[in-house]
């Protein structure tokens, strides 16, 4: 039995990779890497399954790598030192410099002390919360139910809070709805359209928040708040679709050959 | 007995076989002359290292590497937005710590409604009396604005380049949480000077909390210290702004960046 080519009891030869005994048969990817079961013996229950899976997943990786037509280039990474460090230092210095420059140029206004007795005519948060403030002004959309005698079912403020929940919920759901390896907006005009609609919605909601500054009727503003995002989404979709079928697809054919869209 | 010269090592003969210009010949002759005496070849490695130190060459850019004909170079600044928001966060942390030396979270001192409180007065002190205090507050405020802007744009970049896709859902959700915390950071900081707009922004916050069924009153008491605004509100916003949020946000940023480190940066376009 010292000869490697001697048939073994299972009919194979010693040259072939052998299983470790645990079903189903798993094969270590090469001679040098120890199998997970070699690293630690787990012969039963969940731990066994875990290690079996790890072995499978590693094999899957290796198989995919072997099958892949992906061409490895000479430069696979950007060196951390000195290139990345110097680039980062340059960007960081520029950014902090601009920050300090603007701070010196445009110091923020400091208003009057708080007076619980007098409500100011215009209450506004900082610009980055305008969209959120706009969501609190959706009361024209609050349905007045006929069965309740024209009363509203949920308070206007609670409606705004529900709207916040919807916004954060939808944003969180995006990666679970849109999968695949497409990376460019051109590859997925629909999702680019959704994104543009979201961006425009945040802007129109901000406009709704500062509604006092607009010289037209509130009803029109509310309509525009939800119409413009849809419009922007449709336009984006159409433009990207055209681009994709037009010049961009052609220009980037190499890229699509490298990773074809689904 | 002396060592015989090897033909292969006859550099001058080798030089004659080459088709060289005058300059090249002169250079090589000098080099050989020096090398025969000083063996500079022994220091070749050091020379090479010095050469490459002096002639730093940028490696291939992503577009060159993937043969994208350099059509997308203008995307690249957008890929630094994440680190820029961290940078703005650090600037805000440093300037905020300095401001914290002088700020006092107290509504005491107002004899009548609308009088300046101790909190308001301490900000006035920072603006008027503290050396560089005016600039410090300006920097802190602008750093906050820059951070929020960078975070929003970072999110758009991640969305439009599809970097949130399959193995990176957790980091996307972590990012959504971080955006929410960043906005709350901004909100709590907006309340602290206890100026008119601070007060009424906090008032809207309380009203929002109270409008929520079941958890609303509990949330109002936890975050705002009651149903009406006062000393308790200011102290809670202060502790949230300078103690709770910095720890939570810093930890989540570390986790966020750590996951990027582990998963690798999503290959762009």
- How does the overall form of chain B come out from the CA principal axes? elongated
Assign the CATH topology of the largest domain in chain B: Cytochrome Bc1 Complex, Chain C
Question: How many DSSP H or I helices of chain B?
Answer: 11
Oligomer: heterodimer
Low-confidence runs of at least 5 consecutive residues of chain B = none
Q: What is the terminal separation of chain B in angstroms? A: 70 Å
The CA-CA distance between the termini of chain A, in Å, is 52 Å
Order of helices and strands of chain A: HHHHEEHHHHH
Model description:
The complex is a heterodimer of chains A (262) and B (269). Chain A has 262 residues and is an all-alpha fold. Among the domains of chain A are: 14-64, no CATH class; 127-258, no CATH class. In chain A, 54% of the residues lie in helices and 2% in strands. Chain A contains nine helices and two strands. In chain A, strands 1-2 form a two-stranded antiparallel ribbon. In chain A, strand 1 (144-145) and strand 2 form a beta hairpin. In chain A, helix 6 runs antiparallel to helix 7 (218-245). The mean pLDDT of chain A is 77. Chain B has 269 residues and is mainly alpha-helical. Helix content of chain B is 67%, strand content 0%. Chain B has helices at 11-17, 22-38, 44-54, 62-65, 81-100, 118-128, 133-160, 169-191, 196-211, 216-224, 231-263. At the A-B interface, helix 3, helix 5, helix 6 and helix 9 of A face helix 5, helix 6, helix 7, helix 8 and helix 9 of B.
Protein topology:
The complex is a heterodimer of chains A (262) and B (269).
Chain A: H1 36-39, H2 45-67, H3 80-105, H4 130-135, E1 144-145, E2 151-152, H5 156-177, H6 189-209, H7 218-245, H8 247-251, H9 253-258
Antiparallel strand pairs in A: 1-2
Helix pairs in contact in A: 6-7
Chain B: H1 11-17, H2 22-38, H3 44-54, H4 62-65, H5 81-100, H6 118-128, H7 133-160, H8 169-191, H9 196-211, H10 216-224, H11 231-263
Helix pairs in contact in B: 5-7, 6-7, 7-8, 8-9, 8-11, 9-10
